[in-house]
Amino acid sequence: SAVISQKPSRDICQRGTSLTIQCQVDSQVTMMFWYRQQPGQSLTLIATANQGSEATYESGFVIDKFPISRPNLTFSTLTVSNMSPEDSSIYLCSAGDSTYEQYFGPGTRLTVT
Amino acid sequence: AQSVTQLGSHVSVSEGALVLLRCNYSSSVPPYLFWYVQYPNQGLQLLLKYTSAATLVKGINGFEAEFKKSETSFHLTKPSAHMSDAAEYFCAVSEGATDKLIFGTGTRLQVFP
What we know:
heterodimer; A: mainly beta; 7-stranded mixed beta sheet; 4-stranded antiparallel beta sheet; B: 5-stranded antiparallel beta sheet
């Protein structure tokens, strides 16, 4: 299994600013994903972070708002840009390997004031 | 398009009672199905997975789930609930080994002494 860490674990930010969330995996993985979990809600996939190419975004999410980088097979970042209170959520990173399962990080709790 | 439906956003059981959390899926191809658990203020942990092998899948912490194609269901059960089982449970479906996960809306399990 893979162990995933995220930084920061939580943050309180002012509207209009940006926050970059880091996701580190302890082993090489084929795919990494970013999810959003709004308060009391389920998880929604934001994008698939592709190593060496642009991320693949789901409907309703755009690169200008959620730029993603994946420079290698163990690391990815998600930036939440020009934040508004509606962006207050838990952001989770997950990593998929070849055994038909994804491992999740502990999440980043973001509050935008 | 794939989807999962979790019947019952809240389930309450007494300690020692049977736990039954319902999940129905929709998929145009043979699905991979998962159950995840989320404890308060934590990320998601994989409980069990179905990947077209045995239809009765055993997971961690005494949980198991049965894949029933005729009913398009993948319900999660545990014979005897513990207080420590109180958490949010998510059913998810995927089309492939490392494809994106589509999550249900979640079921919050409460266990009373």
